[in-house]
Amino acid sequence: MTFLAQVELIKPPEIEYSAIAPVLIVLGAACVSVLFEAFLPKHQRWAAQVVLTMLTFIGAGTALGLYAGAETTTAQGITTLSGAVAVDRPVIFLWVTLLLLGFGSILLIADRSVEPGGAFVADAAVRPGTVQDRAQATRTGMQTEVFPLTLFALAGMMVFVAANDLLTMFIALEVLSLPLYLMCGLARRRRLLSQEAAVKYFLLGAFASAFFLYGLALLYGYAGSVKLADIATATAGSDKSDTLLFAGFGLLVVGLLFKASVGPFHAWTPDVYQGAPTPITAFMAACTKVAAFGGILRVLTVAFERTNWEWRGVLWGVAVASMVIGAVLGLTQTDVKRMVAYSSVAHAGFLLIGSISLTEQGLSGTLFYLLAYGFTTIAVFGVISLVRNADGEATHLSQWAGLAKRSPVLAGVFTFLLLALAGIPLTSGFVGKFVVFAAAIQDGLAPLVVVALVASAVAAFFYLRVIVLMYFSEPAPDGPTVTVPGAFTTIAITVGAAVTLVLGVWPSFALDWAGAGGFIF
Amino acid sequence: MLAPASGATDAVAASGLASLAWLLLALPAFGAAVLLLAGKRADKWGHLLGCATIIAAFAYGLALFFTTLGQGAEERTSELHLFDWIPVGALDVEFGLRLDPLSLTFVLLITGVGSLIHIYSIGYMAHEEGRRKFFAYLNLFVSAMLLLVLGNGFVTLYFGWEGVGLASYLLIGWYQYKPEAASAAKKAFLMNRVGDLGLAIAIFIMFKELGTTTYTDVFARVDELSSGSILAITLLLLLGACGKSGQFPLQAWLPDAMAGPTPVSALIHAATMVTAGVYLIARSNPIYNLSADGRLVVMIIGGVTLLIGCIIGCAYDDFKKVLAYSTVSQIGYMILAVGLGPVGYALGIMHLLTHGFFKAGLFLGAGSVMHGMNDEGNIRRMGGLAKYMPVTFATWALGYLALIGIPPFSGFFSKDAIIAAAFGEPGWRGYVFGGVALLGAALTAFYMTRLLILVFLGKPRWKELKTSEDGREYHPHESPWSMKIPMIVLAVGSVGAGFFLENGERLAGWLEPTLGPLQETHGALDHTMVAILSVALSLVGVALAFLLFGRKPQPTTRPLRVSFPVRAARADLYGNALNEALFARPGTWLSRALVFVDNKGVDGLVNGTAALLGGSSGRLRRLQTGFVRSYALSMLLGAICVLGALLMVRFS
Predict the structure, then answer these.
(1) Any domain includes A9
(2) What is the ipTM of this complex?
(3) Could you tell me if residue A383 is inside a domain?
(4) Per the CB < 8 Å rule, is B617 touching A449?
(5) Tens of pLDDT along A40-93?
């Protein structure tokens, strides 16, 4: 009897369904999508998956809009699922960003016009280099499992940025990572490179997860709880050794920095960006970065703000390392996808500057930077997927020589996007850098900003090199051709470039929105 | 000495005609957009639209100028709020325009000279494919340059600053088939980035210390800053100015930029964009007023540059490159002038305006000569062209007289005033800077006369050569009217602008609400004495050039340097030996040394930095082995470093 009474005491937690509806919709759709794979005949799957995915994005977007716009919504947000998930202003901004960028990536993933049959392998189990493998490169079938995998990864990212305790965060981290490992290995062309990338990403990802988990365990030992809020309380005064706290913090942060491809934990980035199918690279570069920095911002602000005196200098050094590694190593890259990968390492350094500012401006600046960078990146990879020769994408830079003479429009768009990455005014890249650096200056990080300005001046050189190559070099006689993209890719590139311009000229609405409120816990 | 009131005139909200000032930016931008978007359809009328938008902007600028002239001095500064650009928290960068005498002066210069050069380009670029795109880029440039001078804060200025850099990059690289055009474009872009870095850091310092970047607020509160911050800001702004204006040590890109079409050289690399550095310092006068050390550095940079430009100008055989170094040295004068502080701001701007006229005219003349000579740029292959191109010669010669400062041409008034003001500095400074400026005047006269003789006078050496290096025969001819009219208009400016602006301190009075009252100084030499000296020295330079280059036929190829002293001694023992030993030979050595330093030292610094980065990049790249085990090791090491650092910070 007493035992039963105790059982009755365990109440299911209150769940604010309207707040987490977007995540539930994406997860539910991912499950339906798996069922489609199991029960629909092969020729119907692509169309069904595309329609389902589009509906998912519309549904999740609507649910999010309804929740955020509803009058009952408290201005600063709520926590739900007994505090495991927070839905506050930054989370809503990050969810919208993730949904928008995810939608852009799905457009690239679904495209079948650039590469006949899509960028994905028809049968993932065929070994690379065999006769069957060569045969399937010319078949127009496609592995439509990539759709449910994308949706699962996206749902993982959405939970990751909203997670208010470390255990939820870890689960979300695995939910977002596992599908990504698989998706990296699905390239139709250059299968070996693609599979190698997938294995590398998996091994290193597992390694990083171990760091995260170990850090989590140490922090639990310190605070007696995995909740971010409890850790924050414990840092105010606890009889446990500070070694536990800082060792735990260090390991946890290494796991997060790995996902955000911040140097020196970036080693996987160039190989994986190069090997993965380009639409997946776009998805990783845009959405994973958003999710990882969303997580970093929350952890640093909510749990460790009080100890920032101790860790700030260390992350300061990490940001410098990341910017220097990205800018310097980017100089000698000969593959355009690797070059963008190093650029993303440098950008991760800039984002980290905003993240350690720990002020309202730092938060809103970093959020804005993520939105701006994501759109630019998706458009960049969209353009890269169009420059092809008989073997697939022509990613070696020498093949891009004189591209402006063959395709002035494509070269013009790419030039604009590169200028955005370099941070030239009139592009979102300039505004993003400006707000992040301004926030850092205000928070006393002036020397770091000087380093960042120098790094961005160095990085401008390798963007400029591509522009010079496209405009001023003679085209190679057997150079690549520029594929005329279908509707999906065209929309993705156009929207990416347009947003880059709009956020550069009229960023105030996005900045207002990014600065609407802080984290709650 | 200091004028705390300068630049502090309160701005009022723009109203009436001024509330349409956004048109100044919108008109050229509209032209550029239409020309770029319309594609080949615009080939027939594109250049006309390009000209029309600039002329319309000029007309509006004139109307605005006369309206402002009708107002009292206190009402002449107004601000036009357009929209909030980057509003986030404490930082609110609004996008607004500041209309005051200084910016209006620049608006008239940019749109006025811009219109003339647009018209000239119709003829000059007539045979070019894609002329429409050229006009689109020119329009883009004008729009960005107007934003640079009209913006009401440092961030808006930076925006225009990058915009003109981009347009300049596109236009220098216009002849895409020439490798030197591509490398020149790249060099310009990169050296400008170095300068931009300085400007960006200066802006961030202002933001950090004052929390604002608009001119009104920064200038009103600049005295709250520590003297160290003020010095840092002045030096960083100067670095920005050096990059954009081709000042020492960032001057090497400007001569290379002559690889672009001549109208571009005239508009961007002589009259307007390269003077942005002078604008920046003059605009920031309330900051510079507070730092005598900062101004001293500005003066030193100006003085060094003006000498370097003159001396190297003596050594080049390329028509446009000589003019480019002349631009470098003339901007050196302007930088020197604004470095003098309240006694010099208005003088710098005046020289900027007169220089805008005569240097644009000289460049257009050079373009006209090259247009008629199969695009030949080597002056040793010219000679005696005066009678084939009478209008070009006449207008060019007027510009020449203006540049070397012969009264009553415009350069005399503006340059002379700067030299006199430099002599007015206290103590050794007066003698050093005044002396440098005087020496520069003599050298300017020397190399410009050399240019005049080799191109327009003497034996027509091209007749012996018959064909240019690409095999086409030389048929020198006068250019069409669309090119002649702008040259004539600019020549009128070269003759009259100086007197007009100087008379009754017209310009200084007009600029007073922005730059403060022009102060008089009385130094070691009085004004009349300086005028006599500078004209006399210029005449000496002219005479020297005639003695060296005007009396005997010049070779069509550059004399080999090694044998030069030997042959010179053999031929000139009769009378030139003294000149040789005292002036020409040390001059040659000095110019050779400076050319060497310019090519090896400065380029070497740029290339060396690039090599360092590239080399370390190549070495670091080997760390990216492709093996998962080494990646995992690098992560582990990174993690150990992070952990170690964290624990060390906590427990040390």
Answers:
(1) no
(2) 0.85
(3) yes
(4) no
(5) 988 888 899 999 999 999 999 999 999 888 866 666 788 888 889 999 999 999
